[in-house]
Design a protein that fits this description.
Layout (H helix, E strand, L loop, with lengths): L7 E2 L13 E7 L2 E8 L2 E7 L3 E41 L2 E2 L10 E3 L5 E3 L4 H11 L4 E4 L2 E4 L7
Parallel strand pairs: 1-2, 2-3, 3-4, 4-5, 5-6
Antiparallel strand pairs: 7-8, 9-10
């Protein structure tokens, strides 16, 4: 099978990177195409090390829909993720898919090693604040976190 140079870009063809005209299929380093495969691919469907696209699959994904180890987007599935809707080992965002109503939505680590969590209920956050030895709560989006102030990293 021979690919048309006007359709495909890659290391053996004229590059279609940032500022270039996107190809239907782009392969290489920073390829720009409707379907992009490579290192830092950019396109509607991006597959690679740091994919950026509407649908991104790779190690560090950025896009509307991501399947990756570390991702940021609208709908994200991975290990450590940030998104509106997310599924993962650890993540941030208002809606964790598959989680129960009282599930932990946001996690931080204090220098002392204890954990602070965000809760959908102000009362639960107040109880956790008492357990942690701090006072009050603070809002984190639509959730509540124990202690009056957010801990420093």
């Amino acid at each position: 099978m021979t690919l048309d140079k006007s359709v495909v870009s890659g290391s053996m063809h004229a590059p279609a990177g940032c500022g270039g005209k996107p190809k239907l299929l782009a392969v290489g380093i920073a390829p720009l195409g409707i379907i992009s495969i490579g290192i830092v691919p950019m396109g509607v469907v991006s597959i690679g090390v740091v994919p950026m696209g509407v649908v991104s699959i790779g190690a560090v994904g950025m896009g509307l829909i991501n399947l990756c180890a570390v991702g940021m987007g609208l709908l994200v599935a991975g290990v450590n993720v940030m998104g509106i809707w997310w599924v993962g080992f650890e993540g941030m965002g208002p809606y964790r898919l598959g989680a129960g109503a009282g599930a932990i939505q946001h996690q931080h680590h204090q220098p002392t090693g204890s954990n602070l969590y965000a809760y959908p209920s102000k009362a639960v956050a107040l109880q956790k604040a008492k357990e942690l030895g701090c006072e009050g709560v603070h809002a984190m989006g639509s959730l509540w976190m124990p202690c009056e102030q957010h801990p420093a990293p």
